[in-house]
Design brief:
alpha+beta, Pyridoxamine 5'-phosphate oxidase family protein, seven-stranded antiparallel beta sheet, Split_barrel_FMN-bd, about 170 residues, Pnp Oxidase, Chain A, Pyridox_Oxase_N
């Protein structure tokens, strides 16, 4: 499982607040951005995103999380991970795990990490996982980049749901 996790460039994260209202979000980064710290512990860096902070807020209220990793490109297999999360300051996690890369995403350093104690992990069979092909980040020509605050470059109001939208 360590090698599988180390190859992944994305996962889906499910959280819920204290009242049970759920949120599911997507996390992505270079291969290995989800770190295996030991036999029962994973950690991933939190970077500035859309500003909603739903996942971190939910984790503060309710530590239960679910992570779904799916390899669409090579093995066509998935891994479900259920556990308890906690938010850890970057300096604290690095002191405990000095082998964490200093610059996992070039030019960006997380302020906090989410550390997940794994309670359950199991395979998601390949039967209905499609084989996908990777495209270059630049292939769409839309200028989206890591770390931008530009609403248009982030996808903006794609569905026209904002007041006064199309």
């Amino acid at each position: 499982m360590r090698e599988f996790v180390a190859r992944q460039e994305m996962f889906f994260l499910a959280t819920a607040d204290a009242g049970g209202a759920c949120d599911n979000t997507f996390r992505a980064g270079p291969p290995g951005f989800l770190h295996v710290l030991d036999e029962r512990t994973l950690a991933y860096p939190e970077y500035r995103g859309n500003g909603v902070l739903a996942s971190l807020g939910n984790i503060e209220e309710n530590p239960r999380v679910a992570i779904l990793l799916i390899d669409f490109f090579r093995d066509r297999i998935g891994l479900h991970v259920n556990g308890r999360a906690r938010i850890v300051d970057d300096a604290v996690l690095r002191a405990a795990h000095p082998r964490l890369p200093a610059d996992g995403v070039p030019g960006r350093r997380p302020v906090v990490w989410v550390e997940v104690t794994v309670e359950e992990a199991y395979v998601h069979c390949a039967k209905h996982i499609p084989q996908l092909c990777k495209a270059s980040r630049d292939s769409g020509g839309d200028g989206r980049a890591w770390g931008t605050d530009d609403a248009r470059r982030k996808g903006g109001d794609f569905f026209g749901a904002a007041v006064g939208g199309p």
